[in-house]
Write a structure and sequence with these properties.
Layout lengths: L1 H29 L15 H11 L3 E9 L6 E9 L2 E8 L5 E6 L6
Antiparallel strand pairs: 1-2, 2-3, 3-4
Length: 110
Amino acid sequence: MKTNIFFNHAHKQNVIGLLAATMLAFAGQASAYTGQELAGAAKISLEQARTIALKAHSGKIIDEELEQEKGGSGLRYSFDIRHDKVTQEVGVDAKTGEVLENAPEGKNPD
């Protein structure tokens, strides 16, 4: 009997650990981004815009927002993407999916 109790306890710990790791992995994805109140006017989802931005410049997205800005349709997703020590700002039109900006982040980031 003691073997079964130990196995059940170890199994439960493994399941809890797996659940915790999964929650941590998706924590950044589930959080709200700046400009989320504008999402109703976007035709491109945040997930689609992320994919487009990462095709334009590979790396890790460290900041993202949806904003009204001149150029394109006037509504864009803006991503800061870090690759090595360089941070690139990539802007994706929220209505067309067109890449509007793909340049190193300036000295005065948003």
